[in-house]
Structure formats: C-alpha cells, structure tokens
TrEMBL record:
It comes from the Bacteria. InterPro entries: TF_FadR/GntR_C, Tscrpt_reg_HTH_GntR, WH-like_DNA-bd_sf, WH_DNA-bd_sf. The keyword Glycoprotein does not apply. PROSITE patterns: HTH_GNTR. The keyword Transcription regulation applies. Residues 1-43 form the HTH gntR-type domain. This is DNA-binding GntR family transcriptional regulator. PANTHER family: GNTR FAMILY REGULATORY PROTEIN, TRANSCRIPTIONAL REGULATOR, GNTR FAMILY. GO terms for molecular function: DNA binding; DNA-binding transcription factor activity. Keywords: DNA-binding, Transcription, Transcription regulation. It comes from Rhizobium subbaraonis. SUPFAM superfamilies: GntR ligand-binding domain-like, Winged helix' DNA-binding domain.
C-alpha cells in the first residue's frame, strides 16, 4: 500500500498517512520499502511470545498502578458489553468480537491512573492481538466467544468485590490462555505446512 493510495482512499493528505505508517513501522506492524510502499509484516513467533510475556506481567500489576477509586463507570461499561458478547456465542461475527475485545481493553485502561502504564499496555495489546485476529475465524468459534464472555463476567465479579488486583489476575489468566491457543494453532499450522511440503 502506498501513501498516495491510502490518502486517496481516506480522503486526506499524505502527511497524516505518513505519520501513521511511521508509527506502525516503529511498532513492527508494517515495513516500508522504497519504490514499493508499506507492507504489513508477518507474525514472528519469538517476538509474539516476548510481547505476550510482557503483557502478562503488566496485567498482573494493574492493581498497583494507581488504581482509580470510582469503579462504577467501568462496571457500567462492562454491563453493556456482556450481553453483546453473549449474543455472539450463537451468532459468529469476527468483526464484532474484535470490537468487543477493543472496547474491553479501553475500559480496563480506565482502571489505572498511571498514564505510562496505560500507554505501554495499550501498545502491547494492539501489537499482540493482531495475531489472534488473523486466525480467529479458523478457531473453535464457541470456545473463543465463551472465553470472552467468561473474562468479562469474571472481571465484573472482581470489580463488585472492589478488587482491582483481581481484575489484573483475571486478565492475566485469559491472556495466557489466548497465547496458548494462538501458539497451538500456529505451530500446528506450521507442522501441517511442513508435512505437505515433504509430500
């Protein structure tokens, strides 16, 4: 994709497009090649594991990162999110589940008063979650949707107990399980590709 094509598609000048592409390149999501344009990078398993490992550790720290005292707005947002997510168990919609995941991330960022923590956590979320989204349609849909429902429910229970630290641990456990499913799929997919190539 070129800056010119993207600028035309979104009806804006090339300058903001260039800035966004530079940010994406700094995060390792795209690679810019002269006379070619920007290319979306492939997922590097080691880099993905490293990013997930940091995300897991950071989620454990949520309760220590200047937690906010008013949990009500977060609980209200999750109360809205939960039925939307439950509806997806029987109605597969990858885009809708991704949107719920993004909204959950945004809501949970509101639990910390530490701006640096929020910035780093959010950057890692978007860096890691793309691997999940690329394979989501090929995973067991019911399992994935129910896992998201379960996470939202467990977070709500923790918030009702006024326990932000527990919210971080719930998030941590779900991130670990998501990473496990991603790695199982990718390693299995790589093995099948290798077997097919050997035939």
């Amino acid at each position: 994709m070129s800056e010119t094509e993207l600028a035309k598609k979104y009806g804006m000048s090339r300058t903001p497009i260039r800035r966004v592409l530079q940010m994406l390149e700094a995060e390792g999501l795209v690679e810019t090649k002269p006379n070619v344009g920007s290319i979306v990078t492939t997922v590097d398993l080691k880099s993905l594991r490293d990013a997930f490992a940091l995300r897991i550790r950071l989620s454990e720290l949520l309760g220590d990162m200047s937690p906010v005292s008013d949990l009500y707005p977060v609980m209200m947002a999750l109360d809205e999110l939960l039925p939307e997510c439950k509806a997806l168990v029987e109605r597969p919609d990858v885009g809708a589940l991704c949107a719920i995941s993004h909204r959950l991330q945004d809501v949970l960022l509101g639990l910390s008063g530490n701006s640096e923590y929020r910035t780093v956590t959010d950057a890692l979320y978007y860096k890691t979650i793309r691997a999940y989204y690329t394979i989501l349609a090929e995973l067991d849909w019911r399992m994935e949707a129910e896992a998201q429902v379960e996470e939202i429910h467990e977070i709500l229970v923790s918030l009702q107990a006024n326990d932000v630290r527990a919210v971080g641990l719930v998030r941590r456990n779900h991130i670990v399980r998501t990473l496990s499913r991603i790695m199982s799929f990718m390693v299995g997919d790589a093995l099948h590709s290798g077997e097919a190539g050997a035939c």
